[in-house]
Amino acid sequence: MATRKAAVKIPPTKLFVLDTNVLMHDPTSLYRFQEHDIFVPMMTLEELDNNKKGMSEVSRNARQASRTMDEVVTTCEHHIDQGIPLTVPSRGQASGRLFLQTQAINATLPASVPTAKADNLILSVVMFLTETRKDRHVILVSKDINMRIKARALDLEAQDYFNDKVLEDTDLLYTGMTELPENFWDTHGKDMESWKEAGRAYYKVRGPLCAEMVVNELVYQEGDKPFYSIVKQKDGPAVVLESLIDYAHQKNNVWGIVARNREQNFALNLLMNPEVDFVSLLGQAGTGKTLLTLAAALTQVLETKRYAEIIMTRVTVPVGEDIGFLPGTEEEKMGPWMGALEDNLEVLNGSPEDGGGYGGEWGRAATRDLIRTRIKIKSLNFMRGRTFLNKFLIIDEAQNLTSKQMKTLITRAGPGTKVVCLGNIAQIDTPYLTEGSSGITYVVDRFKGWEHSGHITLQRGERSRLADYAAEIL
Fold it and tell me: Does some domain include residue 123?
């Protein structure tokens, strides 16, 4: 037993070899490895240099990564081959060292692996370090799946870069609502206070479940007497629940639209609430995200005049091949990307079959023109430095945004502006983004519990039985 105890010693800190795509994905990744050391091969620096030109997000990140590395290297006061401490440049975020390749490395890769390729040169560095540094646990970190497969085929350890992931499992993502158990009122009804104010019922309850609730979470109980409410306040072990407006009833219709299910009712309560400045809606295709948001936006812009106009934007990531440059102004170029807007406006403007409701064909045309004057379509590329006052800002297809782009967009909001993010994390088209690292996952997680934000995950498709079945089985 004594010899076994002697053999077990505390493993030293790891040595992570960074692939170029990690630095281009997150320029601050040098500071994300805590007490562990980082090794940057010369080929990684070469590839950063090759990718620094241009105005794309990748080029911007390559330049930022180079600047970060320059900041670290300039703090070095001794021999660079002994490693550069990261504590000072990272302001205490990382306590490891940065090693740069200072010598020619000639590791013998198998004959079948071509040595002229940049990826394989990085693999040769990992192989060399694994063979020569037996005292260290050497791991390659890469966002490139094929690179990781090749590394494992050569019996080298490789990992994905996980630091940008908000959640490991998206099933754990906050849904924005909780079903109350049947015995909720028995266990939480003691010393309950209830009152009415401005047509709403309020209940102040205490109990074990209250600790888990967050502000603006929607709670419900189905049964003979369904109970739908929102957590208005949280005060230690007590919460104040506020009853909701029933948007499923025709008298409360929003621009002619009524909620078809519980989640849509919850979503409309958040969208129509002036106290909620930020709303995020997640859901698969056909759950009504864009339709509900546009209906709420038109009502609050044209009827109640709460906002001056609607601004709609989305990421221009094509699903298939790009069709090349588009003619016209910024708005005309964004036109083909805004098919979802046109389709939903058609629904909201009434179809010829139902009489339109706006004085026949002429009335409908006039209404359509009025609506279009209040909707501005903007490209993401020109958002930096802008401020939107009293606007209803809709960010569509937000699952294709990175957390950094999401921050850029949401911080455009000036006084009186409401921001709504719509997305479906099952349909990500941006390379290197996953369900766990998408910008919308990031904001849902970070805004959870803020008194002026709300989130709902829409679950039931309302587009058509064909769309629902396709989303389920395909």
Answer: yes
